[in-house]
Amino acid sequence: KIIEQEKVSPEEIIVMMPEIEPYIPYILSVFNLPEEDPRYISYRISDRDMTRENPLCEPFFQILDLPEGRFTASEVVQILFSPYIMNKFEISEPDLEIIKWWIQKTGIRWAMKGEDKEAHGVHPSEEHTWSFGIKRLLLGYAILGEGRRFFKDILPYDHIEGELAELLGRFLEFLFTLYDIYRKLHSRMDLKGWADFLNDVIERMFLKDEETSFYIQQLRKIIEFLYEAGECSNFRYKVGFRTIRYYLRGLMSRERSTGRFLTEGVTFCSMLPMRSVPFKVVCILGMNGDSYPRQERTLGFDLMQKDPKRGDPSKRQDDRYLFLEAILSARKRLHVSYVGRDIRDNTPVPPSVLVSELMDYIQDSFLMEDGSDILDHIVLEHRMHGFSKEYFKGDGRLFSYNEDYFKAAKASFKVKDNKDSFISALKEAPEEFKRISIRDFVRFFKNPSRFLLNRRLFMELEIPYLKVEDREPFSLDSYKEAVIGYRVLEELLEGESLKEIRRRLMVDPDLPQGAVRSVMIDEIIRDALNLYMELKKVIGDDKAVKISVDLEIEDFKLEDEIENMFLNKGHLRYKISHIHPKDYLDAWIRHILICANGNPIPTYIVGREKKKDKRYRIVKIQRLRDAKEILKDLLQIYWLGLKRPIHFFPESSYKYMESYLKYGDHKKALESAKKIWEGNPPYKRGEKEDPYIRLCFKGRDPFDKEFFELSRIIYESLFRCIENRNV
Questions:
Q1: For strand 43-45 and strand 556-566, is the pairing parallel, antiparallel, or unpaired?
Q2: Which residues make up the CATH 1.10.486.10 domain(s) of the chain?
Q3: What is 2-48+259-293+315-378's CATH number?
Q4: How do beta strands 684-685 and 679-680 pair?
Q5: Average pLDDT over the chain, rounded to whole?
Q6: CA 495 to chain centre
Q7: β-pairing, 266-270 with 603-608?
Q8: Which CATH number is associated with domain 52-254?
Q9: pLDDT higher than 70, residue 211
């Protein structure tokens, strides 16, 4: 509006504030738009300190901070995450994810080698060091270990070949370069030695191109000050890296960028002396009562403060003069902004004393023709949010041209019915969804809301994040314990000896070191053996085979393979931990497909009934004669669930149907389902806390007629087919 009404160009506008740094994120959020955007206004930010303006400063100081740490996996990855370092070693962001995967799978935590651990008072073990992980990676490139073959007590990490081998080479070049710098940072040198060393760090870690040449020159200029300081002072003593790092940080924080002042676009800058350049529009932000004039912190040994004289420097008086300079620089319009409401209780807060004096002067010196208070015409109180409806009424001084805020303001007038889902119904799903894999079919019923949002709306609410660990494992969570247990069980089923299984577990990076590892291995093997013995009761000496499923029912086509088929015994599903309702659902759907495919055999589920149970239980699902009829109902539910969220929740529905068939009491069954739905925070998460279910059913009653009907269709036949179940 200022540009249109005052007929000024962006170059004729300056926005000033006491300190520029706190405002930079807000400036970027508003002005950092592509040039083709109709809201784009060119701008420049001046007076940033070098550590924030120069993007090489952050990775540069991360490298200098390495001696303070333990050369951990996260420290190394954080340095490599800098795009300027990635460019130097030709590593892309997808490559970085692969490297993080390698670090996690090879058990790298900290220290380059065992000797480095001694400096931290730890036993010099090679486990969980970079050296240990690198040996596994290089051996994986040299030989095929298949997760079992050892070479000098080292288990190779497979899957390193082709382009991945080249990536490994580039990563190791980076790692060894960084470690060499890390070692030298522990030494002591004179100032000239440090200057040469730091220039070498820049040369080895940053790629010089058109984008970085200016920033590299800035860093070298600061390092040159270090060299000149040694020459001018004739200081020849050797110092450690902490002294050098502290000195460099101080130099860079005091180095201000002034080259962007008075260049193209709106100028954003700090309030500094000698800035009294005329502008048609001057905006002053941050004139808060506690921010400006800036407070002086008196040092206890400052004798000038005890006996002040005329002419002594005063930051407060300097700020008063800077404010006057800024006012005199405005030629057409002056805009002064301050926070006028308390953030806690919304009570009025006075502005800076300088703004109050200016307002008092205006009020005493000028009158309005109608006799009204002039401050009512020059002081404007904005609303807390930019999407307030007050900005779009068009009949006041408050206004906004932001289309997004306008849409938000319009939406606030609409009356929302909490009973409606955030999506009512989608169009009919494309025909391609009628070709279904068994995995997708099972995945749909395990969480229909998630399947709908993932496949139809392409929404991912839980993006997996690969975390790099720095601490060696001291315990084993239930998930990792189950993963290791499954691996042991698979090896037992393949006829592997306990001696070889134990040998591989002794080098597993997920297990703690020392005597604790041996105890955990004994427990894992014991649980796996118990489950193995129960499985043998079912399958005997039969070998597992795969069968192909190819079904055409109405317009749907299901095709895939099902594993763990023992044609003389049945289909086998097993779990080393307790059997969850979703495990029953998984086995039940596969059982229906097997029987509908012309293989009327039973399905066995082997696992613990409860978490605390030590013994395993065998659950048998009887053969189905009407599998195709049940499958037709499931396919109709599947097709409905591709249009809108359906009221089927695997855990709550399971509990409802289990209780209803056991007691025949609808209210009692509903109470049981609600307990699963609500959970027991903070000890147990309720099913409603699933992010996909929460988004689809927030503010709605999930337990309606559809819930009861779907629970009956999906689970009733399952409970009828389970032998020896007390329902």
A1: unpaired
A2: 52-254
A3: 3.40.50.300
A4: antiparallel
A5: 85
A6: 42
A7: unpaired
A8: 1.10.486.10
A9: yes
The span from the CA of 204 to the CA of 185, in Å, is 15
Distances (CA, A) of 256 to 43, 50, 266, 272, 295: 18, 6, 19, 11, 22
Answer for the pair 327, 358: CB distance below 8 angstroms, yes or no: yes
* 3 state DSSP class of 283: strand
- Using DSSP, state whether 194 is helix, strand or coil: helix
> How far apart are the C-alpha atoms of 2 and 198, rounded to whole Å?
48
- Using CB atoms within 10 Å of the CB of residue 595, give its burial: 0 to 12 exposed, 13 to 18 middle, 19+ buried: buried
Nearest to 192 by CA among 230, 247, 241: 230
pLDDT of 9 reads 85
Q: What is the pLDDT of residues 609-625, one digit of tens each?
A: 777 777 888 889 988 88
Within 8 A by CB and 6+ apart from 196, the residues are: none
Indicate the pairing of strand 603-608 with strand 279-284.
unpaired
CB 230 within 8 A of CB 190: yes
**Chain position carrying tokens 């068994």:** 438
Q: Which of 212-216, 284-288, 313-317 has the lowest mean pLDDT?
A: 313-317
Report strand pairing: 556-566 vs 435-436.
parallel
Q: What does the pLDDT read at residue 671? A: 92
Q: How far is CA 63 from the centre of its chain?
A: 24
For the chain, residues classed under CATH 3.40.50.300 are 2-48+259-293+315-378
The per-residue DSSP string of 456-518 comes to TS---SS----PPP-SPPSS--HHHHHHHHHHHHHHHHTT--HHHHHHHHTT-TTSPSTHHHH
The pTM of the full predicted model, rounded to 2 decimals, is 0.74
Separation between Cα atoms, residue 244 and residue 570, nearest integer Å: 72
Distance in angstroms (rounded) separating the CA atoms of residues 695 and 707: 17
Query: Using the 8-state DSSP alphabet, how is residue 700 labeled?
Result: S
**Phi, then psi, of 484 in degrees rounded to 5:** -65, -40
Report whether pLDDT(35) > 90. no
Provide mean pLDDT across the span 491-503.
Answer: 85
Whether the per-residue pLDDT at 446 is higher than 70: the answer is: yes
| Helix/strand/coil (H/E/C) assignment for every residue in 403-430 | HHHHHHHHHHHCCCCCCCCCCCCCCCCC
Strand positions, DSSP E, 285-351: 330-336
Between 2 and 410, the more confident residue is 410
* Residue of 1, 54, 52 whose CA lies nearest to 27: 52
- Using 50, 70 and 90 to split pLDDT, how confident is the model at 201? very high
Using an 8 Å Cβ cutoff, are 205 and 106 in contact?
Answer: no
User: CA neighbours within 13 Å on the CB side: how many for 324?
Assistant: 7
Task: Tell me the C-alpha distance between 616 and 670, whole Å.
Answer: 29
Q: Is the pLDDT of residue 435 over 90?
A: yes
Asked if pLDDT for residue 303 goes beyond 80, the answer is no
